[in-house]
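It is worth pausing here to work through a concrete case rather than discussing structure prediction in the abstract. The textbook approach is simple: state the sequence, then state the predicted structure, then interpret. We follow exactly that order.
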Amino acid sequence: MAGEVALSEDAPGLLQRLAAWWPREAAEAVRIALTAIAAIWLAMWLELALPHWAGWTVISVTLATRAASLRKSLWRAGSTLVGVTVAMVLVANFAQATLAFDLALALWMGLLTAASSVESGQRAYGFASMGFTVPIIALADVQSPETVFQIGVDRCSTILLGIGCAYASNVFVAPGVPAVSRALAGRLEAAAQACDAWMAALRRGERPGPMPIAAVMTLGEEVTDTFTEQPSLRSGGRGIRNAAPRLRRVLAAGLLRALLPDRPGSRSTDLIGAGGAIAVRQIGRVRVSARLLRAGGRVGRRRVPFRPHLLLWNDLDWDGWHAFDNGLRTAAAVLLVNGFWYVTGWSHGAGAATWASLVCVLLAAHADPRAESRAFLIGALLAAVVGLTLRYTLLTTTGSFALLAAVLLPVAMLAVVGRADKRAIYGIGFGFFVFGVLDPKNPMTYDLADSLNTVLAELLGMAVAAVAFAALPPPVSPATLRLRARRRLVRSVRGAALDPALLLPPRDRYLARGFGRLALIGADEAMARSGERLLVIGLLLLALRETDDREGRRVGRAVWARLAASRPAEADAVPDPLRELADRATLPLQAERIGALAALVSDLDRAGWPNLDPGVRA
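Step two, the predicted structure:
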């Protein structure tokens, strides 16, 4: 008994010492690597053509949380089906028309690159996967276009097999409903606390500092992930779903209070149309939702409805010109590599075209695609050396799967760690490429000359993608991205002032996109303050038009005329039409809104703002 007691007392220290030598990340890498090997074995047993697709799929869709893994798996499965269908359509219609096929492929890749660039998270990956699946299928066997259906079915089967293996493995380590609820409750409480501290500083008359935009903006994705991982939380989860919109309204009301601190009359929340609930109550509701979630409670049993429009577009800010540049770059790179392939008649040129397309569309939505494409190429070079060495030394000694599994285990662990750890900048290229170089099949084939040609062609395609990111056209500078964000913010205010009622965005979407633009502009304090003023101007116009669209249109025309005046000093010298409109307002609340607009417009610093400053290109 004494020995047992001593052992139990020493157990925590023993576990800590073991964790130092065998951290949780290593255990996860082993689990995922074994799952990938199991998927490859099943693909071989089912006699699928390219079993390594199943292994990489396991690594690709296994993310930090089960919710993210499920969302990526759904996008991977759906995008693969769409991509295979498009590949079959292209081959069926343009198998004998080389130029038409190239143009159609470049157009498809450009469109999907643009779609991926305006999205975020798993939606961006889903559109990228729709894009790069097409060249993988359509260019897999250009000498026999009639096999495209068989290749497509084989890829769909292999991808779905990998997704199934990943899901089965994740079930054993997935957190339960209480753990997921507590994690989300902590994030809700942290966001509510940040907003409460910012609003408290405003009430005390202090300078509150930057708004806690990041904490609020990430809540939407976190709530979606939670509902995906544990669908049972949708029942009675309306308060959870509404947490991010409520906090955005709190920040907007706080902005109005900060910009017009001495304004008498109605509360700021009433002016912006936030349902009459003061900011303290809005924050309190979020905190109540968090406490109920932590305790396992619900507010009713009404199920949160699924919003299908979020499968096609999001409510966040996106840069159309950035997407156009990325699409143009991908299309140009695909045409360039295809042209080189046809001119040289290289038998392995299809590999170059496939990988140039894949890297261009996959990395276009990343923060620094120029550097990441170079890192991808270097990682692929390392994978080529490792894969070819292992394939033509160890794997030629015997045909047993045990040896193949022993070789694949450390390679798959490296791929897992490289994909999951952002510090391993070469990891994505290594993991993506190494399985294809090893090319586990049943039976294995060994042709060194063919393998070298294949690897060389695929590396050439990645190199073309890296050059394309540097020159066709190069990624825009941070200053240009901020200028575009300012332009989009001005256009949103113009839309709130002049667009037909049918085209006006909901206030929550306007706020979500507006705060996203402010986050981009925030590096310049003067610009950020003018941006906050413009955001509130647009929000007040939307509230005006929701109450009385005809009156709101009249006010909107007057506001935009003053904002867009080529000489603001002269505009200030004439009588303000907004004051006259306030005197003739139909409701006292409308008059207060118009008065607030007049004060905000008169004090706006237009310097550096497109369409407002004559010295800045519109």
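Step three, interpretation. The radius of gyration is 28 Å. Residues 66-94 form the longest helix (29 residues).
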